[in-house]
Amino acid sequence: MVNIIINKKFYSVPSNWTVYQACFFYGFIVPRFCFHERIIVAGNCRICLVEVKGSPKLEVSCTKQVISNISIITDSPSIFKAQEIVLEFILKSHPLDCPVCDQGGACDLQNYSSQFGSNKSRFFEEKPTVKIKSWGVLINTIMTRCISCTRCTRFSLEYIENKFLGMVGRGNSSEISIFQQRLIRSIFSGNLVDLCPVGAFSSKFFKQKCFLVL
Length: 214
Ligand code: SF4
Fold this sequence. Notes:
The protein is an alpha+beta fold and 214 residues long. The protein contains 6 helices and 9 strands. Helix 2 crosses helix 3.
């Protein structure tokens, strides 16, 4: 165990925890998209920023390991400004279709946008779109909603042993896709619906049941 300081209060946590895990355990709100406790850490969404005393810049809390007497701040004006900028960048390529999205009401992006985002839009350009494709028997995809957190690719590598899901293209044209048209056949692929922090995946079975009831 090591002693750490979060927002000027002392706590004790296991030495192999990350700063994000310590903040989460003690109830400090730090937003995250790419981090998931059951899959390997990527640190690519850059929204879980915190201040660490002695560090010249904000730190990504999900990749930073705690050390003895580390002093962490989670609620300074510079952190809120940085989180607002990250959200603005993510929303640059995310459609504002919350009223018709399957994830609406249970969406991390929706929640964090209302909590940490700006109330003004500076974006008037056309947003990138991605064609709807079939990926397998269990999941529907609307990849235009994807925020490139890569949770699905890391999960498929670790648990489904599927090496055909990844990021293709570059810059504005980059998208999560399957390679060589290999459909995801694993029964665990249904977990991607829950794992995705936005509504890029939905369950084929759930939709079919809804149609049967109607
Ligand atoms: S589809 Fe969902 S889980 Fe996969 S990268 Fe995009 S937002 Fe993340």
